[in-house]
Design a protein that fits this description.
The protein is mostly helical and 463 residues long. The protein is built from 21 helices and no strands. Helices cover 76% and strands 0% of the residues. The N terminus is likely disordered.
Length: 463
């Protein structure tokens, strides 16, 4: 929910709404809702709106943040630590078999993304998210009990499907049991929508939030956002250029993040630390990444600079790679290597949330937005297949192929392509700005403009 939307409401929009009603081109019910929204927007001034946003943050975000954190640990960080504690030897697997087992996860993970988000839209997060987490917990426990390549790989396949959610076995079993109990609690703690929450929101606040969500997508007009559950929006998502433009960036991040997260404990272990110490040493870089992610999100909202919130962290990650690649070859440069790891983690992890927010802002229609986000993630997660195969065990600790591919992709798709896409969006916005609202309403009906969503000439892309 982006703060400061009230600044977008202009007096000319009110006039357009009145003129359109008078000419019969605007649905009276929709205009009445927009009129109510304008009234509530005047009541919820800057300070009151900030207090409302903080209230929502406290009641909604903590449980979702924790569930996302748990999901990430379950699917990636745990496996790196499992390898460090002897999973490879216990399962009798070669390095290539290990990489194959990592790869199969992403095939089903990518396949499950779009159907899962459609189900999320249909059943609501209160039911769907805990259901997925329960499935994840069962698969994790079963994976931890496997004794060979075939059995363990099979459950990696299942984990990918449902993820779209002082030994290595206990890492999996403990994570699985913990996930199961958290998922049960989530059935009672996750909220669906403002209309369905309890007494911590007043009726007026609920109405304001619902209307704000309906009219706040990409522009300043009385055209409401489409909220129907209709599969035609799935087709529109697949046809959208913007979905793939952003997916290319996310694909790159997936290659790098998953590749690094799978080998990070091994990288630190190769610096001379014991397995236990190496596992503990992976924590500080992630803490630093968390701090950078929070700052990046705040700055993106504060200064309305979406492209910079993606490209600047990517540049930080590039610098991290430039430091790590030569320093990892020298055992005397352990401190410098760890500094590069900090920059790498701090640069990589803010990107995915920033890209998700950017995609959500630039997609109009709740169904299309849900599918576009899922499609973008599904396509990008195929990068995990690549990322899990480019860090070859025999190349440790230099990992020439892995580091080279990651660095090259970050420069080309994480920096250069981002700048190009930024100017594409600016060009579209400039072209639409040349049309007056009178010209637009003379050419299109309200229903047509609502159906067009982010392709409407009234819509402005966030840059």
């Amino acid at each position: 929910m982006e703060a400061g939307f009230a600044d977008k409401i202009e007096e000319s929009d009110k006039a357009i709404g009145v003129d359109s009603v008078a000419s019969g081109s605007v649905d009276l019910a929709a205009f009445s809702e927009y009129d109510e929204y304008l009234r509530l927007n005047e009541i919820f001034t800057s300070d009151r709106r900030k207090r409302l946003v903080r209230k929502i943050d406290l009641h909604v975000l903590p449980q979702l943040i924790f569930l996302y954190l748990l999901s990430y640990v379950d699917r990636s960080n745990g496996i790196g630590n499992a390898k460090l504690f002897g999973a490879l030897a216990d399962l009798g697997m070669s390095g290539q078999q290990w990489n194959t087992a990592l790869s199969v996860f992403f095939a089903t993970y990518a396949f499950g993304g779009v159907p899962s988000n459609i189900a999320l839209k249909r059943f609501g997060p209160k039911i769907w998210i805990p259901t997925l987490m329960i499935c994840v917990s069962i698969v994790l426990i079963c994976a931890g009990l496997q004794g060979n390549f075939a059995g363990w790989t099979s459950f990696r396949v299942l984990l990918g499907l449902v993820e779209a959610g002082i030994g290595w076995r206990f890492i999996y079993v403990i994570e699985g049991l913990f996930t199961f109990f958290v998922a049960i609690a989530a059935l009672f703690l996750v909220h669906d929508s403002p209309a369905k929450v309890g007494k911590w929101l007043t009726d007026e606040e609920k109405q304001y939030l619902l209307l704000r969500h309906k009219f706040s997508a990409g522009g300043t007009s009385s055209i409401p956002e489409k909220e129907l559950f209709n599969l035609k929006y799935v087709k529109l998502s697949f046809k959208s250029f913007h979905t793939y433009a952003i997916a290319l960036i996310e694909f790159t991040i997936a290659v790098v993040v998953y590749g690094i997260s799978f080998v990070l404990p091994t990288i630190i272990n190769n610096l001379g630390y014991t397995a236990m110490t190496a596992q503990a040493m992976t924590v500080p870089p992630y803490i630093f990444a968390c701090i950078v992610t929070l700052f990046s999100g705040w700055a993106a909202d504060r200064y309305k600079q979406r492209m910079l919130s993606v490209v600047l962290p990517n540049i930080m990650a590039v610098i991290g790679f430039i430091i790590i690649i030569p320093s990892v070859r020298h055992s005397s440069l352990t401190g410098l290597t760890l500094f590069g790891v900090f920059l790498l983690a701090g640069g990589l992890y803010p990107v995915s949330p920033a890209v998700m927010a950017w995609t959500a802002l630039n997609t109009s229609g709740t169904m299309k937005r849900a599918v576009s986000l899922a499609l973008m993630l599904s396509f990008s997660q195929l990068g995990g297949i690549m990322g899990s195969n480019i860090f070859i065990a025999t190349e440790a600790p230099t990992y020439n192929i892995g580091y080279g591919i990651c660095l090259g992709m970050l420069v080309v798709f994480g920096v250069i392509w981002l700048v190009i896409y930024y100017f594409i969006l600016k060009g579209i916005n400039a072209k639409r700005a040349k049309l007056t609202k009178e010209e637009i309403f003379a050419k299109y009906s309200e229903e047509e403009l609502a159906e067009m969503g982010d392709e409407s000439p009234l819509f402005r892309y966030s840059t």
